[in-house]
Fold this protein.
Amino acid sequence: MSYIEQLIEILSKEQVSTNPTMLEQHSHDEGYHASSLPDVVVFPKTKDEVSKVVAFANEQKVPVVPFGLGTSLEGHVIPYNGGISLDLSLMNQILDVRNSDFLVKVQPGVTRSQLNKELKKYGLFFSVDPGADATLGGMAATNASGTTSVKYGIMRDQVRDLEVVLASGEIIHTGGMSAKSSSGYHLNGLMVGSEGTLGVITELTLRVYGIPESIMAARATFPDVQAAVDAVTTILTSGVPIARIELVDDRSIHQVNTYNELQYEEKPTLFLEFHGNEAGLAQDVEFTKEIVTDLGCSDIQFESDTKAQTQLWEVRHNLAYSFIHGFPGKKMMVTDVSLPLTELAGAILDARKAMDAVQLDGALLGHVGDGNYHALLMIDMNNVNEVQKAKEVNEHIVSYALQRGGTCTGEHGVGIGKSAYQQREHGPAYEVMKAIKLALDPNGILNPGKIFVD
């Protein structure tokens, strides 16, 4: 009896699929990395089913690759060793909203928008916004962040507890519901960002926030990238409680204008958002206006209307899609580094020089409030020369960041795309990570080939 037939006996025929279309859907993510088919796709409904599947795979030494919605960009969910693609989309229940504790308990297949729709009834929201409507399990696995991280923090900051199935099939909890603890190792921090290489997340307890009384959005235009980044630094050091602060370069604005039929001034632009009460917000807005004007801002537009704010942020979130639609037949490579704020402007300018030197079109943008920026490169995957140029630009951008105390990935995660840089970034700590992996997954069945190149 094949191991797939045994899986059907463990679960049911309806939960185990070898349909070619289903296999293809689980062979890739939204990045540019080569696809690879799993042997089978399995759809567990409970933590106990996950435990049974993983324990069986461990006995048989069959790879297991957790799968959410496939919105990742660094090849995390691609099963390069075949095996089981463990699709957690049926585990999509919001289990408990503890509104007075500002906590929520969810299954891993719950999406960000699904959770926020439910939380709105309680006057609450979940803060991490990576742009894509990803699953919360996937967001924890990759330690996602996004536009609001400058105020509320990244995914790791929101996790109070995880229920995790280890390679042996054992189920553990990594934390609790208290706001702080000095007890034992920080297993939440270990599991968040581990990309399914140490265990499969089957439940999350997350921190949530009260919806602000007032929200104000703004768009500010600058003569150059240096002036825009200087404005970011000054706003942050001035104590303005900014909720989002995003930079897009002039090339980005040109593409935005073309795709959305807008007429924004084509210069480096900051998208900002303020959260607070009405009186405090008015002061913050005026103070920010003074700061950006002193730093050469040529125009700043504020939006207090909810519809107008939504449209403004849709422009930012849809930037990648404006390039995808503008370059039919090409794939997008998205770089992802983070640096100290003092190094950010130099990094962005250097990245533009590197892109121009090899004549690759694309944009520069980022969550500059926490030093994270991206280069979007449009490449023809059938053009070997173009693919090589893109890899060289990515290598250059990463090397620049690492030489200045930065990281090779600010939010997308390692997967296979950034695995080559792990030893360079972490030094001897890389061997410590490998030792942890070996201790928790001695047979190497959990998402093999990710994070570690050896």
Summary: The CA atoms of residues 43 and 132 lie 22 Å apart.
